[in-house]
Design goal:
Helix content: 25-40%
Mean pLDDT: 88
Number of domains: 3
Largest sheet: 5 strands, mixed
Number of strands: 12
Strand order of the largest sheet: 3-2-1-5-8
Bound molecules: heme C, copper (II) ion
Structural class: alpha+beta
Distance between the termini: 25 Å
Order of helices and strands: HHHHEEEEEEEEEEHHEEHHH
Number of helices: 9
């Protein structure tokens, strides 16, 4: 099973290079779609800046301490500067930490302001609900709720408030290129603001161990120009496509006959369910099984027939008894749900 994104080659080089090359190439930027080193929004930028300031400060202090240590080791004792132990402790042990930590605290508090920069657009109300091991995404704006899974579309260039909660255990919502982390805690609703400076696709990942398939609980954030976003949302608001031919209609019948609708919603066809991802527009999504597999026909069949092989322990049973004809028909039906 190959991950949806390869590790960008710039990152690979970094790990193998010598220390100086590492620092240089870090500064040049590690342009990954899941990288804190390539901030693509104001919150991620603020976090990245704090990181680099702390890195630089720590480097200066390290050099200073090393220089003092070398001085103490190699300077002929008679020629050492006469510094009293008390003065050294007062300056280096009390004064220096108080000054640097106070400066860092003030800087940190100011920078944190960016992370909370408000966003209250009543038309963009996105709710993300964590499940073992997938992300349920609801769009509540405009008087109608639509659900999708493991894929969050946002308008680029504006702050978007995301509220998060969980149906089971603690998860953590993290899109490194855009913002910090926010925990999904049972019984609580938390918020985070995502803002992408320009259109692009970024990868997010659950950042709090939540069980066996925690590592396969990923998602993508797609930032789009406002009109593309609006068109996407308008399409998602449509009910599921009605079967265009007899083969697809057979697929829909096999889908309901196999009990898939006990867990999955196909809006306009059955009653709403929440135990599995909403499939109303499943074919419009880039990935299946929370960023695990690319969304294509072969993988669709794989996810249905061998769910427990794709993601062992996940909440969907495998369907080894579905014959090839039914599987094909169901796949055709799901592929028609654009
Ligand atoms: C017991 C509940 C349950 C039943 C029954 C069920 N599923 Fe699922 N299904 C899930 C869950 C939970 C997931 C998400 C798994 C994950 O990624 O962790 C899922 C994922 C999927 C996905 C991937 C969707 C996506 O966006 O990633 C497809 C396609 C799917 N199921 C099709 C089916 C079909 C077809 C059937 C009937 C043959 C079926 N399911 C029966 C619970 C169920
Ligand atoms: Cu999780």
């Amino acid at each position: 099973m190959k991950p949806p994104y390869r590790v960008p080659s710039a990152c690979k080089k970094q790990t193998s290079a010598a220390l100086s090359a590492l620092v240089l190439s870090s500064l040049a930027g590690c342009r990954g779609v899941q990288s804190t080193l390539w901030p693509q929004g104001p919150a991620a930028q603020a976090i990245s800046d704090i990181g680099w300031v702390m890195f630089a400060g720590a480097a200066v202090i390290l050099l200073l301490v090393m220089a003092l240590a070398l001085y103490a080791i190699f300077r002929i004792p008679e020629k050492r500067l006469p510094v009293s132990a008390n003065a050294l402790i007062a300056v280096g042990g009390v004064g220096l930490p108080v000054v640097t930590l106070t400066a860092l605290l003030i800087y940190g508090v100011i920078a944190m302001g960016y992370l909370r920069a408000g966003a209250d657009d009543p038309d963009v109300q996105i709710e993300v609900i964590g499940n073992q091991w997938w992300w349920d995404v609801h769009y509540r704006g405009g008087g109608q709720t639509v659900a999708t899974a493991n894929e969050i579309h946002i308008p680029a260039g504006v702050p978007v408030k995301i509220s998060v909660r969980t149906r089971d255990v603690i998860h953590s919502f993290w899109v490194p290129n855009l913002a910090g982390k926010i925990d999904l805690i049972p019984g609580r609703i938390n918020h985070i603001v995502l803002q992408a400076d320009r259109p692009g696709m970024f990868r997010g990942q659950c950042a709090e161990f939540c069980g066996a398939q925690h590592a396969r609980m990923a998602f993508v954030v797609i930032a789009e120009p406002a009109d593309v976003y609006a068109a996407w949302l308008a399409r998602q608001r449509q009910p599921a496509a009605t079967p265009a031919n007899a083969a697809i209609a057979r697929g829909r019948d096999a889908f309901s006959a196999s009990g898939c609708m006990v867990c999955h919603t196909v809006r306009g066809v059955g009653v709403a369910q929440q135990a599995g991802p909403d499939l109303t527009h499943v074919a419009s999504r880039k990935y299946l099984a929370a960023g695990t597999l690319e969304n294509n026909r072969a993988n669709l069949i794989e996810v249905i027939a061998r769910s427990q092989t794709v993601k062992p322990g996940n909440r969907m049973p495998s369907y080894p008894d579905l014959d090839k004809k039914s599987l094909d028909a169901i796949a055709s039906y799901l592929e028609s749900l654009q």
